[in-house]
Design goal:
Helices cover 39% and strands 15% of the residues. It contains 15 helices and 13 strands. Helix 9 packs across helix 12. The two termini are 24 Å apart. Bound molecules: flavin mononucleotide.
């Protein structure tokens, strides 16, 4: 059988394009209207996406987020509500490994696993933006370097998984005669004493539903992220600047997985893909341009200046980046500027002017495709068949209109035998072809 393509829908507030919200009659409801969110999830399920993926950050991050709505509802709570209104869709909640205690995340995601009857996913992010740290009262001086972030995240995941396994079904003996509800000898007491965390106990609920653990996702771009994901995640979510980078990342991730004694097919690699479907490629590009033009150019250029560490006066909309200056400016912040090198590379490779670059960047480094449903399906199949990806996390410009358009791509993939006609299973893991965990 030909390889089936995995597709998640990224669950944005209004869509991936920062100007997308302007096309809503009443954008004030986008942040917290539960009916709107449920409607979007149901559309994703109708289209038979594997899952919806809820990115998330703590607090309002930076000035760009004052200019567009962000989903304010906490992901796991929102997904618990969505779980009751859907039946097959995987439900992926982002929860940072850098804040709070792993016990709380273990319990939160285990609850989602039970509420959704086996459809929970956890996106393990390691980000530590300044605004998030400030909101949580963490001094910026305590910001971690990348190696420490991943070292800490590893302990975090180990504790979460240990708690998910701490109360197996067989330990709930419910022996009425002897007055024993849980047989402690059948439970797996967690006893963790690490460099960053310590924890001891048994969680009060099972992490498994029908024997299956929630699906673990790792979102990142760096080599450390790739190695970490190959060890601890079931699915890697990445965003690489070029197809060749994606192919290299894919190969590395599968290689690391094999090195850790895993079946590489049980590590699913899903880069982001920003897809705009039109009647022709020109029509799809015109749609993007129409949204781009609704953004303030001054604002986008000033953002680029902060992102690249270049003075704004050096950035002229109709000229290329000042590469000589760009290359001279050192950066010691590997988190804030994690895309800095990529942005410079993309600008150079495509010969972009600053204006073209800021418009290109509106997709946040996701690979972009513009064209008819047939053209986009061709590209997706080509990339999956040449070891670039196992599928994609799909971003559309505006939800739900962009999803309605993307359904034509799904229909095309289905016609070619590359995407499901209906959900095969109720469980997220099984739909992804993953073992119980
Ligand atoms: C595709 C993708 C999605 C991400 N989603 C989130 C998110 O929802 N919330 C968050 O706080 N960080 C998110 N991150 C940031 C990562 O967790 C991490 O901080 C960042 O990639 C820098 O780490 P790295 O250099 O090791 O990749 C995401 C990163 C990528 C590449």
């Amino acid at each position: 059988m030909v390889k089936q393509i995995r597709l998640n829908m990224i669950f944005h507030t209004s869509g991936r394009h920062d100007a997308g919200w302007k096309s809503f009659d009443d954008p004030t409801t986008l942040v917290d209207d539960i009916d709107h969110q449920v409607m979007l999830a149901q559309i994703a399920e109708e289209a038979k996406f594997d899952a919806i993926f809820l990115p998330d950050t703590y607090a309002v991050l930076g000035s760009s987020f004052l200019r567009k709505p962000r989903r304010g509802l906490e992901p796991a709570v929102l997904l618990a509500a969505i779980a009751r209104e859907t039946k097959h869709l995987g439900l992926i909640a982002t929860a940072s490994s850098l804040t709070g205690h792993p016990y709380n995340v273990a319990r939160m995601i285990a609850t989602l696993q039970q509420v959704s009857k086996g459809r929970a996913g956890w996106n393990i992010v390691t980000s530590q933006e300044n605004e998030a740290l400030q909101a949580l009262g963490v001094p910026l001086a305590e910001k971690l370097d990348r190696a420490t972030r991943y070292e800490r995240a590893a302990e975090f995941v180990e504790i979460v998984v240990a708690y998910w396994n701490s109360l197996p079904k067989e330990a709930i003996v419910a022996d009425k005669e002897n007055d024993v509800y849980i047989d402690q000898s059948l439970a797996h007491h967690v006893d963790f004493d690490g460099k960053h965390f310590s924890s001891s106990g048994i969680m009060q609920l099972q992490g498994r539903y029908n024997g299956e653990l929630p699906v673990r996702f790792q979102a990142g771009v760096s080599a450390q992220s790739c190695e970490f994901g190959a060890r601890y995640a079931d699915v890697m979510f990445t965003s690489q600047p070029t197809v060749d980078h994606d192919r290299t990342f894919y190969k590395k991730a599968k290689g690391f997985a094999a090195g850790f004694g895993r079946n590489p097919d049980h590590l699913v690699v899903l880069p982001g893909l920003y897809a705009v479907v039109g009647d022709s490629e020109a029509d799809a590009l015109a749609r993007k341009a129409q949204f781009d033009e609704q953004m303030s150019l001054d604002f986008l250029v000033s953002n680029l200046s902060k992102q690249l560490g270049l003075p704004v006066e050096e950035l002229h909309p109709d000229k290329p980046l000042p590469f000589d200056l760009f290359e001279k400016i050192p950066t010691d912040d590997d988190v804030i500027n994690y895309r800095r090198g990529d942005i410079g590379g993309v600008a150079k490779e495509n010969g972009f002017t600053v204006k073209q670059l800021v418009h290109h960047n509106l997709t946040r480094g996701q690979r972009s495709v513009f064209g008819t449903a047939e053209q986009i399906a061709d590209r997706i199949i080509e990339w999956v068949d040449t070891d670039v990806a196992d599928g994609f996390n799909i971003n559309v410009d505006v939800q739900p209109d962009g999803v309605a358009r993307f359904k034509d791509v799904i229909a095309e993939l289905r016609n070619r035998g590359r995407f499901r006609t209906d959900y095969e299973y109720d469980s997220f893991r099984q739909n992804y072809g993953l073992p119980p965990g």
